[in-house]
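call fold(seq) -> tokens
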Amino acid sequence: MSGHSKWSQIKRTKGILDKKKGVLFSRLSKQITLAARDGGDPDMNFKLRLAIFKAKEQVMPKENIDRAIKKAAGMDGSIQIQSLLYEGYGPSGTAFIVEAASDNPNRAYQNIRNIFTKNSGNISTQGTVAWMFQTKGQILVERDANIDKLEMTAIDAGADDVRESEEGLEVYTKPEGLEKVKDALVAAGANIAQAEIIKEASQGTDLTDEEKPVVQKLFDALSDDEDVVAVHTSANL
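ret:
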């Protein structure tokens, strides 16, 4: 499995995101809008419930959430946002998948291609690296005194894999099983740091101390783009 540390990314970006709430809320709004296309009722739409959960984690105002849902139905008269997916290679042979959402696909493509090029990478054609990744549900559970109990709770609820680290538990599920496992953990008293659908590389790419900052720079530049909603990499950062 990829050794890319989700915990380290949370720690590293928390302070940055706190200073860029506008960019963060825009990204979360796009995720909500895309999810709401399958139905604007969270009770009937798991993807929308998950997107709203992530938005509430970041204390996104309710009016922003409601506006994003209305946008999916075209109720605000705005241009329709499109879901976009890009693949590419970064420095040291690292693989990247970039999820984006934009009302201007040409702009999004050009910006993302330029980011790859400026950071010693290159954007590639569809299918080039996607085969290296698996789509999974991921739940990060903060460590507490009941860590062993929470691990068993996750397994009993249907988790495919549970990995313990210094920070807590990394719980992996089938995408459709994410909500069931998350709800079971919450009911057991778990503090959920993050719950989302991810793409994880089946084989992580190890990097030297000199290579890591270069790859991290590409990861951060892609993550900061206004149209990008998620970045996945094989790099063990």
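The beta strands are 82-89, 95-102, 122-124, 133-142, 161-164, 168-173, 192-201, 228-233.
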